[in-house]
Fold this sequence. Notes:
Helix content: 40-55%
Shape: elongated
Amino acid sequence: MSKLKYVLSTFIFALPGLTLAQEEASQQSFFEQYQIELVLGLAVVVAFVAIIAMFTLLVALKVVLKLKRAEMGIVEEEKELIPVKEGEEGVGFWRRFWNRINDSVPVAKEHEVATDHEYDGIRELDNRLPPWWLYGFYVSIIFAVVYLINYEVLGTGPTQDEEFQAEMMQAKEDVQTYLASLDNLIDESNVTLLTETVDLDAGRAIYEQNCSVCHAADGGGGVGPNFTDKYWLHGGDMTAIFSTIKYGVPSKGMIAWEAQLSPKKMQQVASYIYMMEGQTSANPKEPQGDLFERAHEADVSPDADVYLEEADPAPETNPDYVDDEADLEEGECC
């Protein structure tokens, strides 16, 4: 029994060491973050397995020795794993085990620990603290010392505030990752007008790189139609603009951009084009298509003027401007 207690106590006392050396999960992989814990845990497991193997070997040697003694005619009295104490005659193994971990006094000897305090026919006993409670108390003391050294002396473990900040940063990254995953779900059935500065800046950059060659930098039109008037060939709301960009109009030289731009980028450039209506163009092209009155003029961001005023108003100064429709091959117009 003493060997079993020693094995269990060693295993329990080794567990607090698994809390050493933690670092932010956002900066390191799992194995790098818990490197020391994994090594200590593996060492504990190996030590535990080694102890079990040694215990098994001792039991096997004991059995062999018992057989040898039997062959020699030496008869030994069988010993219980948990010896029977006085007053425990006839008590089963598990009851004796319960008595040991609780250090209970057998009923036959309770008179030895009885006190003078009695109430309603029940007398109080002066038993010792049970071993399971004492072992737990000792473990808590050792854990407290290890915790204090780890977090307050060596500083190898993160404080509660550091853990909170790390978790908040991880939460923000998770939110950004989730929002980024939603970008690919944008289509003509759920596209909305973007008015944030970052989105309009991105839309303007995409427009200047891909669309200004056909529609002019200020949206006045060229090979493609004018975006600054209220006449639209395929509709002037966000759904129509997004669909035109996504699927194109091959018959008129407008290519489909869904293979080159992500849904988010198509939404950004569509929002920037949406903002162009009502702006002044240096050389506006004649109206094309049908008059399209928007139902929600208030949706247009007042920041739109800032983006369009910065665009080059003079077509001749725009290096991407093309004055001759014949210079463009079919399929290049955006």
